[in-house]
Design brief:
The protein is an alpha/beta fold. About 45% of the residues lie in helices and about 15% in strands.
Amino acid sequence: MRQLAILPIVLAAATAALNAHAQDKVLNIYSARHYQTDEAMYDQFTKTTGIKINRVDADDAGIVARLKAEGSASPADVILLVDAARMATADAQGLFQPIKSAKLDAAIPAHLRADATKDGVTWTGFSTRARVIVYDPLRVKAADVATYEQLADPKLKGMVCTRSGSHPYNLSLFATVVERMGDAKGEAWLKGVVANMARAPKGGDTDQIKAVASGECGVALTNTYYAARLIKSADPQERAAMEKVRVVFPNQGTTGTHVNIAGAAVAKHAKNRENAIAFMEYLASPFAQEYFANGNHEFAAAKGVKIDNPALKAMGGDNFKAEQIPLGVVAKNLVKVQQMLDRVGFK
């Protein structure tokens, strides 16, 4: 009888062990990335580690909303978001946890990660994109748009087009410029950009490129991957639009071109923390970098990894000087810069 009494305890312990083992082989990812090339990257991780990936796809805002609603019950282990501003905002809302990894410290430059604390780093960039200037060569000289600062030059009055100033892509750039110029000069620069606008901000980066190609604008800002998509487009009209414009990687003679990131973080309430860290380290590997970056015509973030992308090369992206201001520092300027945008009327 005593043996029968012990049996349920033994079975319960065995079941718990099996559940723990099963949990060790699972990773739950919430992703704002939707690129078919990522599938090979996920498959290789599973083949190498035996860890099964479950993925939830949504946009950045949807993922953040879901994490907040789920709270400590969230199954999410790894969060993939686009843009340092979005990463920093989610981090400020307490949705990530810091991790320590010697492999990530060695592979990813410090300026492409959140500021390190004694507890570690909360988010890490795994690919980069440059925020470049496109211009109409029939109306504007390359020398007149060689820097971001020149976007406020009265010489470009009535020519500048952008998407919303509050969009994370612009907000991150503007926060970088303000960090470099200082508050007073930075706000004056934003005011000058507004004064030079051809029309009120609207649309996305692709719309800005097409507006320059059509003659509506003379100058615009875009992330490099939007231009690369048009270069590679199956639509002849989109390819023709890129043929009408030129691309400048700004500030090559000074501080370098602003770059932003697509990145990842371990979720605050990750149930499979060690698997999550292993996946983060995997993303920094040359194999994963190729898929993570090239899937969206981006550049690798890991040191020593080069992406062979003809579209990026065509616009001069195979060898440019990138700005080194830490994105973690830039993130601290976001609220302040948004207030500046409101004051100068940058919609």
